[in-house]
Structure of Integrase arm-type DNA-binding domain-containing protein:
Amino acid sequence: MRAINRLSAKGAAALPAGKHADGGGLWLVKDAVAHGKWVLRVTIYGKRREMGLGQFPTVSLAKARKRAEEARALVRDGIDPIKDRERKRRDAKRAMHLLREVAADCFESRKAELKGDGHAGRWFSPLEIHVLPKLGNLPVTEVDQKDIRDCLSPIWHTKASTAEKALQRLGLCLKHAAALGLEVDLQATAKARALLGKQRHEVVNIPALPWRDVPAFYASLNEGTATHSALRLLILTGVRSFPLRNLHENQISGNVWTVPGEAMKGRKGATSDYRIPLSAEAMRILDRAYRHARDGFLFPSARKGVISDATMARMMERRGMKARPHGFRSSLRDWLAEATDAPHEVAEACLGHVTDGAV
């Protein structure tokens, strides 16, 4: 009998279940008359191995023989054909530029312009939670408006703000991919928006306490705890929660609090810091806070780090209040507009907002 090419295409189809040699280490292993798999037995580095060459009859006898000969050629050159195939698969996967990988690279490149280098996760989380589980393993070049529509439609109306952020950041990822030289559809997110339609959800502003009720609430914060002191200073200064909760003693000089520019929302790429003059009452709060400071932070949490925004919010919630800490900025802005003659630019500056002009 011939040493190789023992089988014929017609004969292979009629063979019963079992192992059937074609020669040269190539075997047809059938589990039924109509189904089986091709296996090549090779010896590499003195060790015998079996290499799958595909399913029968999807892979024909001719194709199996071709694959077997390519593997034998590698063995003759001292190359393990199984490891070589695995390496090629890994290389091919890397060359695909999956959306998951492009998104991570895009996030990495934008960290410098995000508050705290994006460590809070707010920039990446809409993608990580709502997009990448469904589309992350797609090559970015294959992502189209239908994929995006199907991915975001479950939250388009129920979590409108999050869906909007996910769509916007996905658009940035596609631009990043284009900058890498990949052929992507830069209009995919705009087309997806057209398919998704107008959102029914209305954005609800964070509840704020009417400014006339603020003094009474302020007076009730009299326990001297980190939470009470933080809320008092939040009300007096009108800053956002993040810079206040992360207030460090090295940011205070005399009666001026200097907030690092990168900690101020709305000051993208800011190089200048934000200086806040402190009133006598604010200084008294700081004097008490210094006593409970930990690692230089004036408002530490009970366990580690600093107090969270949720801690202050829950305290207000326990009192049956709908208002939340961030709402005190709105209370301050209303007071400036209704009870003072402060110019618009001054009122906006009090809140750390960037107005029309550089001045």
The chain has 16 helices and seven strands. The beta strands are 18-23, 26-30, 36-44, 47-56, 252-253, 256-259, 274-277. The first strand starts at residue 18 and ends at 23.
